[in-house]
Amino acid sequence: MIITRRHALAGASAAIAAGAFGGPAAAQASEVVVGTWGGDYGALLQSEIDQPLMKPMGISVSQDIANNDPRRTKLMAEKGSRRSSMDVACMNDIDSYTLSQAGILETVPTDQVPRTAEVLPVFKKPHSIPHIYSAMVVLYNPDKITTPPKSYADLFDPKYAGRVGYSDILYSFNMAAANIGAGGTPNDFSAGRKALLELKKQNPRVYPSNEALAAALKSEEVWISTMWLARGFMWKKGGIPIAWAVPEEGAIPILFEAGVPKNSRAKDAAFKYLNAMLDPKAQVAFAGKMGYVPTVKDAKLPEDLAKEISLTEAQQAKLRPLDYEFMQKERGQILDFWNKEFKA
């Protein structure tokens, strides 16, 4: 089940007032619609980008809030329309690949998004900008699980029956993690499917959102899960009794990106928004509040924060990137398995 949150509006219309003594005229007010997640991510966009960076330019921001699947579906359905319903689309790296392959995203012009010069080379793509990144780890309650997990496969251990929890909106990543834990390959999820069907006998719990999973971890209804390290960092700061372990077989990296649909109604404002997402101060704020690592070279984290949310060089060397082509091709089958066989 994919839960779509209600559409919400954020930000305020504003224009820069003309200088009292013949100063520059106000920037022409405009609006940009940002398709994004709600919750903590959407709130941080408002506090770190919309208000401090876009409002002074006379650009007001509305948020079109939804989860990954409905946002991707809407963009694809609107491909032939004269105007897209959003001007900036936030997305994970799988959807970025899918949308770029479908010809939906505009090429990012470096002259209009000059902050791309600071992007770490490994993250550069022609049709999107990388905003923040993290890795999928094993979250666990150290009061209930005193020996730290070592693998994604630890979720399959019968001693955690009834205490394993998943976020429904991360179904494709949950499937990929289970497949890695079961010894599967990036372009064949059969091992993961088999392992999840065995796990189903142990009554795992599936929650409609990341926030709902956090509540279950806080109440100790759930003891162990797969989740982004960044989320674990943020939830621990919020008082949830959790620790995390990077799987010894290698963790799945996650990159959150943003792009502009070719039929955006406000491309100039949209590219300014992409540029603002790469602002070093804003990226450091996301790191400090949500635990996601910056994607630009000039965003310097405090040493203690960097140590807590970053991977070691050895762990980075063992990262297990997803096969985007396979994930796109198998998306429907992965979702059908998750909904009709694992959750049913």
TrEMBL record:
GO molecular function terms listed in the Swiss-Prot or TrEMBL record: thiamine binding; thiamine pyrophosphate binding
Family matches, as InterPro entries: SBP (IPR006059), TAT_signal (IPR006311)
One GO CC term on file: outer membrane-bounded periplasmic space
Pfam family of the protein (one): SBP_bac_8
Origin superkingdom: Bacteria
SUPFAM superfamilies: Periplasmic binding protein-like II (SSF53850)
UniProt protein name: Putative spermidine/putrescine transport system substrate-binding protein
Keywords linked to the UniProt accession: Periplasm, Signal
Signal peptide (from-to): 1-29
Organism, as annotated: Enterovirga rhinocerotis
GO biological process: thiamine transport
